[in-house]
Amino acid sequence: MANRRRGEVPLDLGGERLTLCLTLGALAELETALGAPDLAGLAERFAGGRLAARDLIALLGAALRGGGHDIDDAGVARLPLAGGIEAVTGALGEALAAAFGEPAPDPSPDSSPDPCPPREATSRETSPPSRGTRR
Predict the structure, then answer these.
(1) Residue 95, exposed/middle/buried by CB under 10 A (0-12, 13-18, 19+)?
(2) Model confidence pLDDT, tens digit, residues 25-78
(3) What's the gap between Cα 78 and its chain centre?
(4) Which residues contact 126 (CB under 8 A, 6 or more apart)?
(5) Which positions ≥6 away from 64 have C-beta within 8 Å?
(6) How far is CA 98 from CA 25, 27, 75, 104, 115, in A?
(7) Which residues contact 82 (CB under 8 A, 6 or more apart)?
(8) How far is the C-alpha of 16 from the C-alpha of 67, rounded, in Å?
(9) What is the per-residue pLDDT across 67-116, written as a single tens digit (0 to 9) for each?
(10) Main-chain phi, psi angles of 120, to 5 degrees
(11) Phi first, then psi: what are they for 5, rounded to 5°?
């Protein structure tokens, strides 16, 4: 059973329940396999949203090995996609989010509330001062 607090993500594939986890070792393996110079380069590559099938094999293989499965990339390439590629990419997206954190929200003016919204004046501020009172 996958432990989400440790960054593990479940994946049902080929009638088997698998656990994905991008450990530090899995991330180092991906840097080498994909020719990324560092973790930031790896994050940039995945953030682009365009991945080749060989990228998915490397990513799925590293995540499966990080999750404790003994499988090489040739074995990963032979796994059936009975649940569809969407199930695999969705689980890998969750594993990447667990490893790299969720993306920051868009700071555009339309998407964030005004940190200092105008306040309504109180009756004391809008009524004229009465005689003999000081403000």
Answers:
(1) buried
(2) 999 999 999 999 999 988 888 887 788 899 999 999 999 999 999 999 999 999
(3) 26
(4) none
(5) 18, 19, 20, 71, 76
(6) 15, 12, 25, 14, 29
(7) 13, 14, 15
(8) 14
(9) 999 999 999 999 888 777 888 989 999 999 888 886 534 434 444 444 44
(10) -85, 145
(11) -65, -25
* Structure tokens belonging to residue 89: 């990419």
How far, in Å, CA of 4 to CA of 75, rounded? 25
Beta carbons within 8 Å of 47's beta carbon, 6+ residues apart: 103
- The letter for the amino acid at 85 is I
Q: What is the pTM of this model?
A: 0.71
Please give the helix or strand (H or E) that residue 11 lies within, else none: strand 9-13
How is residue 134 written in tokens?
A: 């000081």
Structure token digits, residue 54: 């060989």
**Nearest of 3, 10, 1, 5 to residue 64 by alpha carbon:** 10
**Residue 27 near residue 61 (C-beta atoms within 8 A):** no
State the virtual CA torsion across 81, 76, 17, 80 in degrees, nearest 10: 20
Whats the size of the chain, residue-wise?
A: 135
